[in-house]
Amino acid sequence: MTTKLFGTPVRRVEDQRLVTGQGRYADDVLVGQRVLHAAVLRSPHAHARILDIDVSGVLDVEGVHLVWTHDDLEGAMAEPLPLLIPHPALLHGRTQHALAKDEVNHVGEAIAFVVAEDRYVAEDAVARIRVDYALLEPVVGIAASREARTLVHDDVPGNVGARLEQENGDARAAIAAAPHTLSLDLTVERSACQPLEGRGTVARWDPDLGRMTVWTSTQTATGVRGCIAARLGLDLGQVDVITPDVGGGFGVKINHPWPEELLVPMAARILGTPVKFTEDRREHFISSAHERAQEHHVEVGFDDDGRVLGLDVQFWHDHGAYTPYGLIVPIITSTQLLGPYKPQSYRVVFESIYTNTVMVTPYRGAGRPQGCFVMERTMDAIAAALGKDRTEVRAANFIQPDEFPFDQGLVFQDGRELEYDSGDYPAMLEKIKALVGWDEFPAFREEMAREGRQVGLGLACYVEGTGVGPYEGAHVHVETSGKVKVSTGLTTQGQGHQTVFAQIVADALGVPFDRVEVTTGDTRRMPYAVGTFASRAAVMSGSAVHLAALRAREKALRIAADALEADEHDLEIVDGVVRVKGTESQIDLGTVAVLSNPLRYAFDEASKAATQFSVGDPGRPPVAEDDEPGLEGKDFYSPERSTFASGMHAVVVETDPVTAEITILKYAVVHDCGHLINPLIVEGQIHGGVAQGVGGALYERMVYDDAGQLLNASFMDFLMPYVTEVPAGIDIDHLETPSPLNPLGIKGAGEAGVIPSAAVFAAAIEDAEGFPITAMPISPSELFHLRQSHATEESP
């Protein structure tokens, strides 16, 4: 079979609908029908005990149908929400209730739930609820949490939810014996993803069928379905979860269930009318999820060539008030920190600690930006200490191409060995140097200096674990019309799944691309799935789709061989037609689909529908024991471990000597995600990630005061880059080292653009300014004050 579409930059089939405003999001569901609307009373305090909730002022408001507090919840609904990913080191995991019980632990925590005729009435009703609080001292920030003067949860000693240590070799001994040593303290501040669409859930209960249909803006339809069934006491088969278009996920929508994903279906069943909840922007800031906040202490020992002999990293991860997603983020930091390097010994220990702030779930990059920042700052510090070129020090520490698979001697987020499957980091380094003009930069710097301008060049390397398990499945159905319907359970938030999965099926099955229709995130079509996160869609669902298409192809050839009286090995499928090679004997794939069902339907103008039973071989049953009617293929892909993509970013920046404004002059990316399914989509992912990374490095942060109030919970105050701040052009080159772990040889690409951003901008700014950059993000005002501090330190 000749590959026709795999590796081709096919334009996305989704774009025409989405860019012309024809997307259908959760808030668009059941428009034009009678729907009740929900609003949530959220805590104005970061830490307080709830003494009393008075809802009497709401009960008689016209248009209000329901008001709940925790006291109104029963059974499983009254229990804490699930701890989704337990870990042996998470000794003190805590999750919130659907509605706060006795205590609130961050501003924005849900306390009461109101359903009314419209959102305006619901919001007015929420404002009438009176709550008496006993205020408690809030714990805000890592330093306050480590002091443990106050506890976020009374039963969690020292505010430490977990402590985890991993070591390969004896790092401390190696550092003590090393010719050179360095210590670094590095900080990344808290930030959060800001998707176009916030959280949204719509539910409809059909009492006649005993069936719940839920539309929700999620990254995991299957997980939400299971939670709703369990908490509402329904059979799994009574619940359908459908994910419409999702306006961005970035990790915040992988957490499930959000309180509203349970409260809305429960209200819809009780009221007998569909209920809708749509999160507003302030709610997203104060009640969804954040990430990034970590403080790191690094001890490193190295030789004269810059080879790392021992690396000892300790860090503290601020996981906010609750831990529904376990320790995934700090585990990823602790393991992916190593990047493409092979220190002779490595020890890492982290504490995941509670604060009275919004909880943490993965945000695009999921702990990797912090790890990359730590490792790349360490590499730059080693180069500075030795007076070496920064690329030389990196090259001295690279894992070599002939060393794959390479076992780092640690346990990754999936509980499997941290074993890299493939890569070629020396070749990638040469590509990025050529792309950014590394060797030519000193002359460019001198030219700029003559004009009174100062510029800097930064480089950052990373490895990204992708395609994490445990599984994904796919179903491929060839219709009698010749169209091919593909279903996979993972959800879509704009990644181009309808395009890339159609490319895979078109190649595997031998059908035209425009005959393939892909559905994602609908439990009616594919009830078992894991979700879209961790750059896993192409590896997991792509592989499952490929395997399912091959199953359908195998059956098509078997049926066609019987119909054409030919050997299966003499057949090929081209443009949806099965034909005998080298002859004119052929049969359309749609006709093969007809033949796959012993109960056939013939249509004509006279009878409209006539039923025909196939005669077949009288010596065997119409459907064999190992077969089933229809031309379909279904399969699941479950990998032995994650695949590891990699990349290198380089940036040239200019820092204004007066205003400290930071301007991007050039941005270059080299990326390796194995075989490219669609280079156009991969480059789109890189562009989007770089834009997000620019925001995380230079603009975006969550600013809390000592009382736990988020001071910038709006787009008036939370700065995001506009198109004017994002590089107009990004130079991109690809390296393809196929993964041996999946049938397509692919690796993920979804987070590639954002992972090294903090590291590469810190390196470039440091190169321009001449003093260390140890905390990110960095704004012009911070750079201005750093200049003043550095000048003071240097003055006699």
UniProtKB/TrEMBL annotation:
Q: What is its EC number?
A: 1.2.5.3
Organism superkingdom? Bacteria
The record places domain Aldehyde oxidase/xanthine dehydrogenase a/b hammerhead at 20-137
Which GO MF terms does the UniProt record name? Answer: carbon-monoxide oxygenase activity
User: What are the entry keywords?
Assistant: Molybdenum, Oxidoreductase
Q: What is this protein called?
A: Aerobic carbon-monoxide dehydrogenase large subunit
Organism of derivation: Nocardioides aestuarii
What gene name is given for the protein in this entry?
Answer: cutA
